[in-house]
Amino acid sequence: MSIKQKVQRGFTLIELAVVLVIVGFLLSGFIGTLATRIENTRISETIDELKEIKQAMLAFAFVNGALPCPDCEAIGGGCLVADVGDGRADPIAGGVCTVGTDAGNVPWVTLGLGRSDAWGTRYRYAVQSEYADITSPFTVLSSAGTGVILEPDFVADATGAVAHDLANSVVAFIFSHGKNGYGGIGENGVAKSAIPAANIDELENTDNDANYYMRPETSAGAAIAGGEFDDLVIWISEYELKAKMVEAGQLP
User: Domain extents for the chain?
Assistant: First the structure.
């Protein structure tokens, strides 16, 4: 009686290579999708917190008759060493922030929220001084806000070199430096990388004037006039603020 031997055949190197390639494709697709979902979640969380900060600032105005000053981000202009990065609103002499449009960190301690975005960068805040003077609250007849939100015109100009007003009469700006964090300050108080010269629109958002840009995100090396951009910006208009104050019974 003969015994038949069973021969066990394994995978060949070519078959193993094919399997590994397939698994690699599947993993890369999964990882890419997961990374995109994580970033989208961070963006959504940051936008939601920006909205919460805005509501807290409006509530501050209801109680105090004016918006809060920013938390000082650097020494100078009336900001002392002890004031920098402590999370508290820092009014200068007489309760006024500074002349014109003042900018710094969101005063997260004063408001009770809004220290940093989902990428660990402190939120930035700018306000026109006449709307942040607790010693002389604004009225419905106060001078108009001069802040402007600009949006590149991708319809009239494919590169976005031409910008038009998206909103004017803005009295306060609140924004995140986005994923790249350029020009921002980390949670530890250390400045992050400077904004590259090619990122013109991001530079516009940190030059402390009354003009701010808001537009769709673009990556490094983007072939448009404003360069890379991922700032997330919201604002408070003069008329929105006054309407809320009237509704709350704080203005006649």
Answer: 13-247
